[in-house]
Amino acid sequence: MLSSLLRLFEGFTALESTVAVLVVSVAAAVAMEFVILRVAYRYVSNTDTEYDNIVVASVRAPLVVTAALVGVYVLTQVPTVRSSVLFTPAALDGLLGRPSLSVIVLVWAYAANNVVNRLVDAVNAEGNRFDFAPVFSNVWTLAVLVGSAGTLLWLWGIEITPLLGAAGVAGIAVGFAAKDTVANFFGGIALYFDDTYKLGDYIVLDDGTAGTVIKVGVRSTTLLTRDEVMVTVPNAALNASKVTNESAPQRRRRVRVPIGVAYGTDIDAFEELAVETALAEPLVLDSPKPRARFRSFGDSALQYELLCWVNGPTRRRRAQHELNRALYKALNAAEIEIPYPKRDVTIREMSGGDSDGVADHPSLDLQARERDGDGTGTNEAV
What we know:
single chain; 382 residues; alpha+beta; SH3 type barrels; Alpha-Beta Plaits; 11 helices; elongated
């Protein structure tokens, strides 16, 4: 493509070629700034999303700079210009040609990194995908940095094979020295692609640690527990452990309230009372509807479980507390017995004598009878 462009300047003098290239470059830059970009701005301003606005704003400077500096590079390659200046062709490339291309590479590298980071920030602001955005941003920044550095070395004719070998050796050394950091870094990437959790999710680890995700970094994830204590967990540990995300796939969570009533209770009336009590609690969702389930025949009680739903895992403990209070008051008001173990102590006086007819001192025979809520029990010597 460059050779075809240079043929256009055949027959031109050095001055004519210079003027033509500079005029075309300036015209291209002006057209890019005041025509093409303005049309693009007008178009994206009518869309519903902000993403295209970010893209257009980020590529504005690279496009204008490229349109201007490409002309400078082309000018250094025109034969009549190369033969007319005081510098040698190699010196001309070193003073104008390669620097112009280097500036173009740097400007586009900055724009590429900036546009992705701004898009990530925009997505995070909408609350759709906050999970592991810092990890993705850092990986992208590293890729842009390596790519632009390699391109610049290639432009300036620097052999990168020895550098690659040295980088490999250095990478092995750094990998052994910072293996935990590297493990956390790749652990964060794995968690990102697995979509394990995101900011605001309530998670429970297999060691019992539980909390809301408030920060996701390259090295670790920070949880805020219910005691308002921040716990920092390395990403490698999260990647290797079992993580229960109680906020996914939906935030509502079921509350189980076990309760026992005495044998002989009208179970239809009790079940209706339990459901009405749950529906009266503001923390309990109306849908799905609360239900009372008869689980088993206990030793001294009919074992029930009241099932209902709340809007979020962090509300379960509070809802269970309120339901226990409300059920206790409702059962007392309805005179429905909640059985519990009872112990009766019997004191019996006994007297006896020895072989010579002398009476011994009275002794006490203590027996305890433990009664459950149904009135049955067993005797135990005390």
